[in-house]
Design brief:
The protein has six helices and nine strands. The protein has helices at 20-30, 53-61, 90-106, 127-150, 166-176, 199-207, and strands at 2-3, 8-9, 36-39, 66-69, 81-85, 109-116, 157-163, 181-185, 212-215. The protein has a seven-stranded mixed beta sheet, sandwiched between helices. Strands 1-2 form a two-stranded antiparallel sheet. The longest helix has 24 residues, at 127-150. It binds adenosine-5'-triphosphate and manganese (II) ion.
Amino acid sequence: MIKHDRIEATTAVLEDSDPIHETVLAYADEHDIDAIVIGTRGRSGVGRMLVGSVTEQLLRESTIPVVTAHEETTVQWPFEGILVPVDGSATAHAALSEAIELAERIDAAVHLLHVVDTGLVTGDVDGGMVLEALEEAGEQALDIASDRVEQSAVTTVESSIVSGPPSHAICAYADEHGIDAIVMGTHGRTGIERVLLGSVSEGVIRRSEVPVFTTKAEPDG
Ligand code: ATP
Ligand code: MN
């Protein structure tokens, strides 16, 4: 038992031949755990891995929210501003549900952000039209999301659309708008079947100075 000012913790050392993330998830299941907090990198953190492999597998497989932190993460509690980056995917939709529940409880503002990924616009097509289509899709995703927040008990909602590389733009927004936590999906529009973590979530998890909560889409999407 670890004692901190106001926190009591239980400890457990598990010995199991199953993969580490499976052992952690089984423990969480048996003990009715509501969230997992984990570092982005562990002891075998070699340069080629952007996010540690156990962390990545946990993020991918966990059915409860996983909160990531690294050495420079600062926690400001209660969160006053929660950022939900939206791309119109079912996974981002699931993340928004979690964010709304959290924001309702602590009376936090919900900031919705869509990033128009200008990297998707290549020189050989009509860039202007592609950009317009991307912007329109982004606005639509934001409208759907803000309608949902407005139907909840959340009192403050902000919607923004910016352009640039998504994970950089998301972290820059967080820095500039007093965001205390980011809630997002593990995957987005392109990768629900993909085994790896989506590139936007990975970039945010690595760079963010505030805790990042990631959620998966519900199985029925
Ligand atoms: P990839 O884009 O790497 O092929 P993916 O689409 O499955 O894979 P991500 O793009 O990393 O995965 O999506 C993870 C989460 O990041 C989404 O659930 C959403 O919360 C957020 N996100 C992704 N793209 C954007 C974007 N353009 N603007 C705002 N948020 C985004
Ligand atoms: Mn994506």
